């Protein structure tokens, strides 16, 4: 039969000791009487175990593992063992292999991240940047490497086809809008020319009429037609809005009216203009032009008889602090410091003419929803307050707005 002590590992690196109740230490095997010198920390731990009456304890001090197990009564078995060279070598090999496996996993993760960055993230970023540049007007050019995945290349080609179609569509839209814009300009130009021809015919016809009253009626109609012809030169603006440039228009209109009566704006009858920058829509521009024509024409004919001197004033300004329901309210005040409306009605013919002019002014004021006040104190004054309608965008501006809405970012 074999030696049963081999079960306790006598031939390995372990030492087997007996601890008595008085903490005396003896070797378990008489043929191995050597008792190792235990560190002070081991003695302190064993003392604590005896104090606590511990039946089992295991601890490691200075590379040596100690196992305490109660055997019988106060006698306990203490086994002290150190790692053998083979165990240390095996442990080192195990740790090296674990480290290599962990390092390989880390390298694989880094390689996967770099590959994903190179072949997926960067191509998508370049594609997004190319789309953003295209929206700002640059040609679509993603500059994607041919070695990227096939799906990304398919996505690039899809974006390329879409941007080309959208670019062609925008170019066609802008071309159509410019064409429509030119047509509208041509319409205004032709209308202006036709009205000027009509005004010339009326003027020619008036020169052949002997009746003073009939000749004056023809000239009144001529002035109104000239006002409309002048208006069509200013209705179409260059700032993307179909609106009336009020200040320039009134300056030219009044100059034409003065010239039609063989007068200058700074001689016997002076012209005073105080016009703020206010945009008026085409629908309101026609009544405003005709109101100014009626007032200035009547003032030139009747307000300063017998070569009197005076002034005709026109002002257009925004009303400060208007009511909330009339936001943007403006005030148009025009008149003269002549003899006044009542004095001008001295003769029967002038009464009829003045009556027609006032009726026209009232009618035009209703067209723009204006509040009209007529004052005869110190001349004849007309005060109109109305809210300008929003100017209408031109065809090019509408097309550009549609393109900008299509280019807006998706939320």
From TrEMBL:
Stretches assigned to the Histidine kinase domain: 186-394
UniProt catalytic activity: ATP + protein L-histidine = ADP + protein N-phospho-L-histidine
EC number per UniProt: 2.7.13.3
UniProt entry tagged with the keyword 4Fe-4S: no
CDD domains named in the record: HATPase_RsbW-like
Top-rank lineage group of the source organism: Bacteria
Membrane-crossing segments per the record: 94-116
InterPro entries to which the protein is assigned, alphabetical: HATPase_C_sf, HATPase_dom, His_kinase_dom, Sig_transdc_His_kin_sub2_dim/P
Pfam family, one: HisKA_2
Keyword tRNA-binding: no
Keyword terms: ATP-binding, Kinase, Membrane, Nucleotide-binding, Phosphoprotein, Transferase, Transmembrane, Transmembrane helix
Stated name of the protein: histidine kinase
Organism annotation: Gluconobacter japonicus
Source organism phylogeny: Bacteria, Pseudomonadati, Pseudomonadota, Alphaproteobacteria, Acetobacterales
């Amino acid at each position: 039969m074999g030696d049963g002590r081999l079960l306790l590992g006598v031939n390995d690196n372990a030492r087997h000791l007996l601890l008595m109740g008085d903490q005396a230490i003896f070797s378990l095997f008489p043929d191995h009487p050597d008792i190792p010198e235990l560190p002070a920390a081991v003695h302190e731990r064993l003392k604590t175990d005896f104090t606590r009456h511990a039946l089992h304890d295991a601890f490691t001090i200075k590379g040596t593992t100690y196992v305490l197990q109660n055997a019988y009564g106060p006698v306990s078995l203490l086994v002290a063992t150190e790692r053998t060279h083979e165990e240390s070598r095996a442990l080192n090999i195990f740790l090296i292999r674990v480290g290599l496996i962990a390092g390989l996993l880390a390298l694989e993760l880094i390689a996967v991240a770099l590959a994903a960055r190179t072949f997926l993230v960067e191509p998508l970023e370049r594609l997004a940047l190319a789309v953003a540049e295209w929206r700002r007007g640059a040609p679509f050019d993603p500059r994607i490497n041919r070695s990227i995945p096939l799906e990304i290349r398919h996505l690039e080609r899809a974006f390329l086809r879409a941007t080309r179609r959208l670019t062609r569509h925008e170019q066609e839209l802008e071309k159509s809008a410019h064409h429509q814009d030119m047509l509208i300009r041509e319409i205004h130009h032709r209308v202006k020319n036709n009205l000027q021809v009509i005004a010339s015919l009326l003027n020619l016809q008036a020169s052949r009429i002997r009746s003073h009253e009939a000749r004056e009626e023809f000239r009144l109609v001529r002035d109104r037609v000239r006002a409309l012809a002048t208006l069509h030169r200013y209705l179409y603006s260059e700032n993307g809005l179909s609106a009336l440039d009020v200040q320039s228009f009134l300056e030219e209109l009044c100059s034409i009216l003065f010239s039609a009566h063989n007068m200058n704006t700074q001689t016997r009858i002076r012209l005073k203009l105080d016009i703020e920058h206010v945009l008026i829509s085409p629908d309101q521009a026609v009544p405003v032009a005709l109101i100014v024509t009626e007032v200035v024409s009547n003032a030139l004919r009747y307000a300063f008889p017998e070569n009197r001197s005076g002034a005709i004033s026109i002002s257009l300004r925004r009303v400060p602090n208007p009511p909330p329901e009339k936001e943007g309210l403006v005030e148009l005040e025009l008149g003269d410091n002549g003899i006044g409306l009542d004095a001008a009605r001295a003769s029967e013919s002038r009464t009829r003419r003045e009556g027609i002019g006032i009726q026209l002014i009232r009618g035009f004021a209703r067209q723009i929803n204006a509040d009209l006040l007529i004052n005869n104190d110190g001349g004849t004054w007309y005060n109109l307050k109305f809210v300008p309608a929003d100017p209408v965008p031109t065809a090019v501006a509408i097309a550009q707005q549609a393109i900008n809405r299509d280019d807006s970012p998706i939320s």
